[in-house]
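re: that chain from earlier
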Amino acid sequence: MILIAALGNDRVIGSGDGMPWDVPEEYEHFLSLIEGQSVLMGRRSWEIFGGDLTSAHNIVISRSVRRLMGAKVAHSLGEAMELGRSYGKTLFCAGGAGVYAQALPHADAMYLSFIKGEFSGDAYFPQYDDADWIIDMRVDHPRFEYVVFRRQAAA
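^ sequence. v structure.
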């Protein structure tokens, strides 16, 4: 599973019901990466981004919702991961904060876009140990830096 996120300073990923920045080129990059793949996310993230997604399979984790138009509902991360893997596509985790925190120990990679500038918000990407990850690729864009992290093999 790959965690995919845009982060501001101090790991901020959200503010209220959206993102604290407007960087269309980064959002287009995100949509191009998930196109035709499987994406899992929490219900609130689905409500914000679900209509835009280019993924082939959408899985929403929710304890209260039973059905959603355009997505399969899973009641736990484990159930969502199992369903996502059954599609035979790359499985992305696209948040929010609680889902990222649960998914981090299961991730093989992280595709992170670091948005340039100062932003405030109320949702944060979880802390991760740099020693667990190697940088596989880094691409600098005018308004964000895209970094691919791969999990280090256990010694």
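Residues 34 and 55 are 5 Å apart (CA to CA).
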